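FORM 7B: Structural annotation worksheet

SECTION A. Query
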Amino acid sequence: MSKRVVIDPITRIEGHLRIEVELDANNVINKAWASSTLFRGLEIIMKGRTPYDVGLLMQRICGVCTSSHYLCGTLAVEDAINAQVPLNAKYIRSLILTTLQLHDHIVHFYILHGLDWIDVVSALSADPAKAATEAMKYSATPMAAGEGDLRAAQEKVQGLVNTGKLGPFANAYWGNKTYKFTPEQNLIGLSHYLKALEIQRIAAECMAVWGGKNPHPQSIVVGGVTCVRDMLDPARLQEFKQKYQHVADFVERAYQADILMAAAAYGKAPSVLGGCNVDTFMCSESILLNPDENLFVSGVIRNKDLSKAEKVDINLIAEDVTHAWYDANKPQHPYDGTTIPEHTPFIERDTIVGKRPTINEAGKYSWVKSPRYNGDPVEVGPLATMVVNYAQGNPRVTPIVNEFLKQTGLPAGALFTTLGRTAGRMLHTLTISRYGLETFESMVHNLNSDHTTYIEPAIDPDKEYKGVGIIEAPRGFLSHWLRIKNAKVENYQAVVPTTWNAGPIDGNGKVGPYEASLVGLHLEDPKKPLEVLRVIHSFDPCMACSVHVMDYKGQSLSEFRIPAQAM
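SECTION B. Predicted structure
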């Protein structure tokens, strides 16, 4: 007989996500549903606003990928009105995005996803001397530099255990049989977890050099940037470069080493060798290195074919809401998209899990829409960026991917797994850390003859405009679409990475990446479904980007009245 397992909410992510799976008699998942239980609605808020406020308002979607929506919304306005942007401003925007990627990926692996691989309880029984020797296998100069550092990390966590206040280490599935690290390997990973708390602060400071603050920088405006004094200050330039190199050093000596260690320990573990059941992958171009070159190029690959890639055709994008809590009678292109809430509660059924009714898959069950590319579900994210660029022979990406495959002994096909998705994010981070300063050097060179950071834009109130901004955010392909009429936003749609990955079944019965990734996964212990967390966390879910605020019981949380003169 089949049985249901419900994880609600899944923690260590941004926002609220419910995963429900149906198991067969052997505890193998044969069906899965991803439901986000919050409503975003920012597209509705944008209507009637001045386009010049779009970036600042839209970045409030999320405080994790903090500048992504800011930049993407600004680009959409600039595309619509054909605003000109100086080269220096483009470089600074890329530097903000570059350091955001470094920050976000480090936080994701260590703080949000790492404990799916690292058994903290096991680390407490490790021998620090043996762990120091083990660390040398994965880096010639490991971040966990010696027995003393490892012992200090172990004692710090043991101190938390002794107080009974476990903080981030509470309520986990420690001891699950699908953990594969030895105690010493767990201690290495744990020490890097603690170090990552310091490194993410330095990465955030890198962003703040150009953004003014973090989270939610405020230096990007339609037509350029406002941080000209920082750009012209040699001390600020040197501060940024030193902090960047400090973060890059952690990527090389800790993050890369830990994924190599994971590949060795988990390389034959069934729980991480599936989890990639959608065949199409898409990314946008990203990070301007010089006037003629981006670090990453855009493209689409189909059927997991690493021998070729297609150009992205944005006319093929549409959002389906058959099983999402919105009202629309057919898939909509984002330019013409609507955001009309149509919430229906889960229908009471005979099967109750955790005092909650299970999902009625025949109806609507998520606030996330289902984006499709030419009718097909698509995975986006760092893995998509790496495989699309690998397929196109990107001269900076290809050697890094080949180096990883050689070091681990894994075939290229192993990239299309949960392990591969986790490795793909590290490889994306490694590529950025090694080449991102080319943007900085290009800007410094350009400053010898050009200090321009802003060109004043203009919006004709008698004209109608439409535009799109597309960037590669930390979680993947992000696009903002708007129409402008009477110098005000007439329509706005944000199609975000987690929407691509987390959307429910569409009207043609096609399953999105989250739900597809879980089918076929065996659970060692359905009461401790660590395998589900490991797969879903590998996507780095950000439900806040997909949806915003609703109470589970359907009660109104707050009511706000805005005076007409303030609109």
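SECTION C. Observations
The longest strand covers residues 476-485. Residues 234-266 form the longest helix (33 residues).

SECTION D. Sign-off
Analyst initials: ____
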